[in-house]
Amino acid sequence: EQLIQTKSIHDFKRVSHILDEMKEICGDPIDSSSMERVSEFVEMKSNELKSKLDLLVPTNIINGSFKAYITFDCSNDTMNVINNLAKVCENTKYKIIFIALDNNRKTDKVQEQVIVSSQYDGEYPSIVKQIEREISQNFQDLSIIRIKIKVLTTNESVLLSDMEKDLFWSKTTNYFELRYTIPVRRSRKRDDLPYIQRRFQRLVRNNHNLHVSHDAFQKAYGNDLLYVITIRFFNGGAGLALVQHSSIIGMLEREKFSPLKVVQEFVVHDTNIKLDNCIE
């Protein structure tokens, strides 16, 4: 009851019991295989507690505006997919996005993604089924490889503490996402996406959850091209994401890459997190 009311762990007897079980699993001396078993045990207990809490009282309700991003398979014929989507999305709320992103650091391979976005108002988690049902009806003839739903961090419901994020949300499919639109001067050397990717990776620490993309439809922004740096934080709450954001902004401004636009969001639903190779 105390755990449910406070959304934090103060049941020391249960915690002590879990620690005792971890100690037994570890054995003496501790080796790497023991640590792996402990990690699996902690993950299992975490999921068990989350399931019990959600049955007793909803712990992650969010009311407000959501944005859904639907990614389509365009591996065979990109332009055909875009043309089909243009017909489906004509005079609707859907917006087509065509991006190129560098998600393979070893080969500098650039990936193209065709995405449709739309806005919704409602309550999470029930809105997920509503969005998925609508998407299934409207895009039944196209192959969908990802559905991603996000909410702005200005929504008070996602001002999560580190403990709330770890306790009530998935560590692999719920995360904070920061996007920075950066103008980069065009040149023969610097309008290459892998080059830009490597440059920002050197500048931004903890960059294993970073990728750089640009709108494949876009024309030049004056003498510049607009790139979007996307950085994801899987561990920690809103406070940690805000600290990281402040650090990144400071770094970008020192390097003369002042963002034209910054978007801070929390991802509540992601059906294919590995699509951008952001989990390694």
TrEMBL record:
It comes from the Eukaryota. This is Uncharacterized protein.
